[in-house]
Design a protein that fits this description.
The chain contains 3 helices and 8 strands, in the order ββββαββββαα. The two termini are about 25 Å apart. It has helices at about 40-55, 105-110, 120-130, and strands spanning about 1-10, 15-20, 30, 35, 55-65, 65-70, 75-85, 95-105.
Length: about 150
């Protein structure tokens, strides 16, 4: 199973979004997100992916309901965190990201399946955010498991 971690960063009713350069989703908008690397923690991956894709530093503030997505590439566990912007310094790798910008929530809600990556999942995450379905970060216990 693949684990994806990402962030929903909202400021002035606008969301920090990335325009994908990957072939399978070229030109589609998405929340900053990516694979969790072993032995990386999910929380650390969300912060790292947001920085790598946008150049922005964020602080996680909560977690949205977790999604299990069964797609062409198998099952994916998608964890999206709410986050506050700490430092805005928009920069990105044009091999992976075509653009980064703040997009109004209403504009995202009106995007088509061709414009918004993982359309149904991302719309649900945005809806959960608007309905304040945000859970405490303590949901992720970062305690290390020590084997005997």
């Amino acid at each position: 199973m693949v684990v994806i971690a990402g962030t929903l960063v909202v400021r002035d009713n606008k969301v920090l979004m990335v325009k994908e350069a990957k072939k399978k989703c070229y030109g589609q908008w998405n929340f900053p997100a990516g694979h969790v690397d072993e032995p990386e923690k999910i929380t650390a991956a969300a912060i790292r992916e947001t920085f790598e894709e946008t150049g922005c530093k964020v602080k996680l503030t909560g977690v949205l309901p977790i999604s299990m997505v069964d797609g062409k590439e198998g099952v994916r566990l998608m964890v999206k965190f709410t986050a506050d912007l700490i430092e805005e310094n928009i920069k990105f790798d044009p091999e992976e990201i075509l653009d980064v910008k703040w997009i109004d929530i209403e504009e995202i809600k009106n995007m088509s399946k061709d414009e918004l990556r993982a359309w149904d999942v991302n719309k649900r995450h945005l809806e959960d955010f608007e309905n304040n379905k945000i859970y405490p970060l303590e949901l992720f216990n970062d305690t290390e498991y020590i084997r005997n």
